[in-house]
Amino acid sequence: MGVRAQQKEKTRRALVDAAFNQLSAERSFSSLSLREVAREANIAPTSFYRHFKDMNELGLTMVDEGGLALRQMMRKGRQRAEAGGSVIRISVDTFMEVLDSNPNVFRILLHERSGTSAPFRAAVAREIEHFISELAHYTEEKAHRNPELARAQAEAMVTLVFNAGAAALDMKKSERKVLADQLVMQLRMVAKGAEVLHQKVDNR
Amino acid sequence: MGVRAQQKEKTRRALVDAAFNQLSAERSFSSLSLREVAREANIAPTSFYRHFKDMNELGLTMVDEGGLALRQMMRKGRQRAEAGGSVIRISVDTFMEVLDSNPNVFRILLHERSGTSAPFRAAVAREIEHFISELAHYTEEKAHRNPELARAQAEAMVTLVFNAGAAALDMKKSERKVLADQLVMQLRMVAKGAEVLHQKVDNR
DNA sequence: TAAATTAGCTTACAGCTGTACGCTTAACGC
DNA sequence: GCGTTAAGCGTACAGCTGTAAGCTAATTTA
Fold first, then answer.
1. Which end of chain A has fewer CB atoms < 10 Å from its terminal CB, N or C?
2. Which of B128, B185, B187 should one mutate to test binding to chain A, selecting the residue with the greatest count of A CBs within 10 A?
3. Which of 96-115 (A) contact B at CB < 8 A?
4. Residue with CA nearest to D19's C1' atom
């Protein structure tokens, strides 16, 4: 890669990082201005356009990066779970750890999920869909559920996990522990309930 | 009430209504400006301050009104359920009906739940808490669950309902039907699962 | 090596924002 | 009836926004 392309990439990263760094419980992506981001990245406002068409394009890039981080997390969790132990417990713990180390990645996903930009919502939905379908596939195989039931179960579980994630973002570690325990309990409810429904439908 | 107070109340309502009317899938409360709201309500921007200290105060008023609408809905649903039939099914249908007739009330609640203003999040949390504790109390009584389990169950159910509500906001009627059916299925999972966990803990 | 490309800069502008200040006018309390 | 109160208005201003236009200087290409 040439010197020029390298420098361009570096500045682009500076912009993305600047945007991530400005996110917090009090500051959503949509409240950031192009000028603020450029300022934080130490470039002139108008230079922003050399990298992104507008703030939306930056935001979608961030959502995609966030999604990538999520998928990497899933793999990590699955690996750990293979060593034995409660899959639910291990997954929840992994989720909480990643949430703790990348809070702003989650902020943009959790906030824009119910945001006002349709492309954003679609992008987040796409990322969450990865979660759901992988989990549904997993349950379908391991527990021999029928597809429809597996899908509903997976969706419910992912919903509960993400909702807990949103709540956890503003919590201290001790509060998070309680939350995690309750989440595990809720996930077990769903799992048990799905089992019962499954037996009913298949009449055995 | 005097002529003066009456007129003031009327203008205040015009402001609240103007703000509600400007909400949509593409427009969140936090993206509204004081001037826009004043314009829509046909008053001068500076007159806004005769009624609210700032936009935040307006927003909190709206959240409170939304919460009120929710609680009225709950009562309506409970009355219907008393006439017999599946409590879950009836509650979901009621919820969807109210969602359909007051979409913007839900928009502000659903969006500000994960918003950037702490007072807003707290206000929404308070409203949702009403839901959870009433439901927990109901289950504790009807199904003789222990408090901790009842609480976790209620929280899970409310989470699932609100999440489905957010998704339903941008859907056509036919899509909503599918969503509602899946939601019912998920709620039954949670209910069944809680039952099983309950029996386990109490060893009978 | 000369020409072309391009990341980043400075300057500039129109449009929006919240809100301070002071006025008018109609209802209120005495 | 008369002084007081207050809802609503118009004007004004500073500060922010996105972005258009054109320049500079360094890299790339031919």
1. C
2. B185
3. 110-111, 113-115
4. A46
Count structural domains, chain A: 2
Quickly give B5 CA vs D6 C1' distance in Å: 11
Do the chains contact at A116 and B26, CB–CB below 8 Å? yes
Domain identity same for A110 and A70: yes
Candidates A116, A149, A161, partner chain B, best to mutate (most B CBs within 10 A): A116
Choosing from B10, B31, B52, the residue where a domain stops is: B52
Question: Residue B149 sits in a domain of what CATH number?
Answer: 1.10.357.10
Question: pLDDT of A31-54, one tens digit each?
Answer: 999 999 999 999 999 999 999 999
Angstrom distance, B42 CA to D1 C1': 35
Q: What is the pLDDT of residues A79-107, one digit of tens each?
A: 898 888 899 999 999 999 999 999 999 99
Residue type, A192: K
- Mind giving me the DSSP string for A98-165? HHHH-HHHHHHHHHHHTSS-HHHHHHHHHHHHHHHHHHHHHHHHHS---HHHHHHHHHHHHHHHHHHH
